[in-house]
């Protein structure tokens, strides 16, 4: 199984960016934006944006660490204060994420932003059920046992799949993002 080292700084900044571009986004939609952004970036540049572990949950892929952050579970965070200063999750009713500041753009590359913007655009006009159904068609989700980690390698598609897998494995082995 291909795994990457989670980059907490980029994870916080990516979520802050998403929340600033999609006002009061729910954790469900934020998770799907991150999934598709990671997939786009992995296929184009052989590396993910944040490298979180995606879990095959009932309603589709969920980035486990970032999802924990949205639930206020910061005990494993390297810098919990940075998360609290960047994001607010309104917990009454349907949880909503809002950015408390602008994302630190120096933490996100132009290619990161390209894929985040594309994923936001892709997800924005889709309903909960439609987006959940779309993610249930993803090979990485289909092949993962329920509530278990998804394999990044199965997110890689296309005619250059073998080359992308080889390059991505190098990034995964050396913890480079």
Q: Give the % helix.
A: 40-55%
Approximate shape: globular
Q: pLDDT below 50 for ≥5 consecutive residues: which ranges?
A: none
Number of strands: 4
CA-CA gap between termini: 18 Å
How many structural domains?
Answer: 1
Output mean pLDDT.
Answer: 95
β-sheet strand percentage: 5-15%
Strand sequence of the main sheet, in spatial order? 1-2
**Biggest sheet architecture:** 2 strands, antiparallel
Number of helices: 8
The SSE order reads HHEEHHEEHHHH
Label the structural class: mainly alpha
What integer value in Å does the Rg equal?
A: 15 Å
Quickly describe the structure.
The protein is mainly alpha-helical. The chain has helices spanning 8-21, 27-45, 64-70, 80-86, 110-124, 128-135, 139-143, 161-174; strands spanning 54-57, 60-63, 87-90, 96-99.
Q: How would you describe what is shown here?
A:
By secondary structure, the chain is mainly α. It has one domain. Helix content is 50%, strand content 9%. The protein is built from 8 helices and 4 strands. A two-stranded antiparallel sheet has the order 1-2. A hairpin with a 5-residue loop joins strand 3 and strand 4. It is globular, with a radius of gyration of 15 Å. The two termini are 18 Å apart. The model has no long low-confidence stretch (mean pLDDT 95).
């Amino acid at each position: 199984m291909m795994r990457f080292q989670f980059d907490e700084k980029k994870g916080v900044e990516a979520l802050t960016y998403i929340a600033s571009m999609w006002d009061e986004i729910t954790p469900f939609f934020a998770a799907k934006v991150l999934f598709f952004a990671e997939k786009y970036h992995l296929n184009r540049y052989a590396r993910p944006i944040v490298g979180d572990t995606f879990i095959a949950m009932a309603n589709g892929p969920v980035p486990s660490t970032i999802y924990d952050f949205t639930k206020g579970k910061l005990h494993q965070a390297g810098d919990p204060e940075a998360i609290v200063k960047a994001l607010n999750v309104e917990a009454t009713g349907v949880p909503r994420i809002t950015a408390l500041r602008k994302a630190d753009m120096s933490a996100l590359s132009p290619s990161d932003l390209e894929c985040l913007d594309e994923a936001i655009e892709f997800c924005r006009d889709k309903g909960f059920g439609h987006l959940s159904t779309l993610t249930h068609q993803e090979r990485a989700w289909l092949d993962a046992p329920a509530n278990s980690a998804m394999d990044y390698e199965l997110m890689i598609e296309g005619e250059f799949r073998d080359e992308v897998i080889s390059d991505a494995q190098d990034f995964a082995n050396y913890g480079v993002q």
